[in-house]
Write a structure and sequence with these properties.
Chain lengths: 226, 355
């Protein structure tokens, strides 16, 4: 049972990564398709958080909370993909009169998170941020390609739907999405003790002072005692 | 069969580098978050201090100028550095009797624990280190180079640099205190960084300038690979000594976008515009090995050894200090004045010694 799940999880990731347009059909062979696609999204979100974990370390979270934050980030990532799916379904119907069942749109969007399983590589110093951009573009290309195939649109239509979808998520995020962001930050603070948007410079300065003062005190005390 | 083997080797190498890359920032981040405790390796510093006493070198109170040497990426610990460097540091110390040259900071660890210290892979590094005296050009030594190279990248990375550079600055500060430096003394400090040590020196200067509370601070890069780091704006001056055949140091201006000519708002260009950067050409020297700046066997057409040329130019930098107009008030706490006094003292002592 679990081995079957892992096999289809692997198939879902691999086929999405190589731009197989029939990736959804491949995954659909498994009865619990939703859970496989959700697994891709959570894995992608958690891996990406490892890559972007500097903010957690800077806020001095404990190892247990670090793991908890990975799960939370995976869920948060999955929710953001869910919003994408709603927007794509809405836009596809509105502009091009294309009807795609919402449950399929969600699963398709979850699959586009496949490149993010390499998100941990964002940790690599200096090259990490470039890798993050490559993963984002890779994910976007998969989105366009899957929309193209599953929605039955041409390339131009796919670009319009995906582009407008992205634009709407940005607009929603800075308008009606604010209370949701506040709720997200509350949950992060409650469970992890930090938000992902924490003022890193402020934290650096505070903790830097503490660490240096500690060394000065240790060494001067040792010197006066000797 | 052979193709498969080569392919397997390439995949293995890429995976190895990938793992090293992903793991690279974890030591400093873990230390910062408090996951990894402070395991300060005291042996190097204590050994250096007892040596100071044994050789009757000036007591800390008499030291007017503190020089901290940060070795290149070939070092295993603060004191286990490439074999051509210790004689150079000894000669430098002899040239600067009023100064102290400190060489027990390992710039590739935020806790100053060398690779052969209390680490998970400590025993592996000890075996690699044992190869160096027998075969200094062994390929196994590239392991330490790659490992430390990633730490240089951590120092230069805007995300991790503040954490990593704080760790190194803290250890430099600890070492300064152990060698007699006292907070508020306003005594000048110079960081000398070779190769990757140049970047770490510049990176840690941001914090050191705050810790030193206005005491003069400058960085000298010996063939350093230096990024456009905020530290350049926080030092009193940055000197870059380089060999014209040294393609490694030249990488700095290629791989770091902040040093590209178009990046006018970068820290590098701001520091340059503020007159804080001086580039000094050493001659046709390479980065390491035969023909390098520390090489005692290679000579220039005029008969001078590479070693001596580097030593002379570095000493000149250290005793002449800034290219600033001299202040009339010698009691001023202005960094330029304070360091010129030190420079004059050093020169006078050197003259007395040679006389």
């Amino acid at each position: 049972m679990i081995l079957d799940y892992l096999y289809y999880l692997w198939q879902a990731i691999w086929n999405a990564l190589i731009f197989n347009p029939r990736v959804y059909e491949v995954v659909s062979e498994y009865q619990q398709t939703f859970w496989v696609t959700l697994g891709v999204a959570i894995l992608g979100g958690a891996s990406l958080l490892i890559g972007q974990s500097v903010v957690l370390f800077v806020n001095q979270v404990t190892p247990a909370r670090f793991i908890l934050s990975m799960v939370l980030n995976g869920l948060q990532f999955a929710i953001s993909l869910l919003v994408w799916a709603v927007l794509l379904t809405f836009l596809g119907g509105l502009i091009f009169d294309i009807e795609v069942p919402f449950r399929i749109a969600i699963r398709i969007m979850f699959l586009t998170a496949a490149p993010m399983v390499f998100g941990f590589m964002v940790l690599i110093p200096y090259l990490g941020l470039t890798i993050q951009k490559i993963l984002q573009v890779w994910s976007l290309l998969i989105t366009i390609q899957i929309v193209n195939f599953e929605f039955g649109t041409n390339l131009f239509q796919s670009l319009i739907v995906v582009g407008l979808g992205w634009l709407l998520t940005v607009l929603l995020g800075s308008t009606i999405g604010r209370p949701i962001t506040a709720l997200r930050d509350y949950i992060w603070r409650k469970f992890v003790g930090a938000t992902l948007d924490a003022d890193i410079q402020e934290v650096y300065q505070r903790i830097a002072r503490q660490k240096v003062d500690q060394v000065t005190q240790q060494e001067l005390e040792a010197h006066s005692g000797s | 069969m052979v193709v498969n083997l080569i392919l397997l080797l390439i995949v293995g190498l890429v995976l190895f580098l990938l793992i090293l890359g992903v793991m690279a920032p974890l030591e400093s981040l873990g230390w910062y978050a408090g996951w990894v405790g402070e395991k300060v390796d005291k042996s190097d510093t204590l050994a250096a201090l007892s040596e100071v006493e044994a050789t009757k070198q000036p007591l800390p109170d008499e030291v007017a100028h503190y020089i901290v040497y940060l070795s290149g990426i070939g070092s295993f610990t603060g004191s286990s550095i490439p074999m051509e460097e210790p004689p150079f540091l000894d000669a430098l110390q002899a040239n600067l009797p009023g100064s102290i040259v400190i060489d027990d900071v390992f710039p590739y660890s935020v806790t100053n624990v060398g690779l052969t210290g209390e680490r998970l892979m400590g025993n592996v590094w000890k075996q690699v280190e044992a190869i160096r005296p027998v075969n200094p050009s062994s390929n196994w030594l590239y392991l330490v180079v790659v490992r430390n190279l990633f730490q240089v990248a951590v120092s230069a990375d805007k995300r991790y640099g503040p954490v990593y550079n704080l760790g190194v600055a803290k250890e430099v500060w600890r070492t300064l205190l152990r060698h007699g430096y006292r907070p508020g003394s306003n005594k000048p400090v110079t960081l000398i960084g070779t190769s990757g040590g140049g970047q770490v020196a510049v990176g840690s200067a941001t914090y050191l300038s705050t810790i030193l509370e206005g005491a003069p601070l400058r960085v000298v890069s010996l063939g350093g690979v230096v990024s456009s780091d905020e530290g350049l704006l926080n030092v009193d001056h940055f000197y870059h000594l380089y060999g014209t055949l040294d393609s490694t140091q030249a990488l700095g201006q290629k791989v770091f976008p902040g040093r590209w000519p178009g990046a006018v708002n970068s820290e590098w260009h701001k520091a340059e515009a503020a007159g804080k950067i001086t580039m000094i050409e050493l001659g046709p020297f390479t980065h390491t090995g035969p023909g390098s700046m520390f090489d005692q066997a290679s000579v220039l057409p005029d008969g001078r050894r590479h070693f001596d040329v580097t030593l002379e130019k570095l000493t000149n930098v250290l005793v002449t200090f800034y290219d600033r107009p001299k202040e009339t008030d010698h009691h001023s706490h202005d960094p330029a004045t304070a360091t010129e006094l030190v420079a004059a003292e050093d020169t006078a002592k050197a003259d007395n010694n040679s006389g």
